Amino acid sequence: MNEMLEDEEMQPLLRSKTYDDSEMDITPMIDMTFLLLIFFLVASKMDPSAAISLPPARYGLPVVEKSAVIITLVASDEGKAVVYKGNGAVPDAMIDGSDIEAEENEIAAYVENELASTGAERKENVLIKAERGIKHREVARITKAATRPEGVLQLYVAVLEVQQ
Q1: Counting beta carbons within 10 angstroms of the beta carbon of residue 83, is it exposed (0 to 12), middle (13 to 18) or buried (19 or more)?
Q2: What is residue 60's predicted lDDT score, i.e. its pLDDT?
Q3: What pLDDT digit, counting tens, does each position of 115-142 carry?
């Protein structure tokens, strides 16, 4: 019996494994964060037509986009407006602005072609979506070119509706 007691006393004590709060493994949480990030990047839809920020307005009536020829103006670094045919800053629809007279003629031709086109909804208005920060003289120049063709009933300059 003494022999058993001696053997038990000689055995090393095994401690149970304990974890401190400072030793918590956060690797799974980081993995989940990256998986969610990848999911949202892949699942999101990029919309080029929402790329411009319009100036706010308190008063005005909505315009039906289907019945209007849309011209989009985006501010450039030099302060000059970059002109796009249609809704949004789509690179394929950009009008070359190196020659002002040629640019204005191309805008007038675009508006004339759109007004002459036949479709489900006949276009008779011009809607200019000018981004915030574009100088008024640029908007006035494009407006003059867009209203040159006959058949334009109304010209609208788009603004962002402010909720009151």
Answers
A1: buried
A2: 67
A3: 887 666 778 888 888 887 788 888 888 8
For 143, other C-beta atoms within 10 Å of its C-beta total 18
How far apart (Å, rounded) are the C-alpha atoms in residues 29 and 66? 48
Rounded to an integer, what distance in angstroms lies between the CA atom of residue 73 and that of residue 156? Answer: 13
CA nearest neighbour of 81 among 128, 149, 147, 48: 128
Helices of type H across the chain: 2-10, 27-43, 100-116, 136-146
3-class DSSP assignment, residue 121: coil
User: Domain spanning 50-161 has what CATH number?
Assistant: 3.30.420
Confidence (pLDDT) at 36:
95
Domain coordinates in residue numbering, the chain: 50-161
Backbone angles phi, psi at 111, to 5 degrees: -65, -45
pTM score, whole prediction: 0.61
Residue 160 is which amino acid?
L
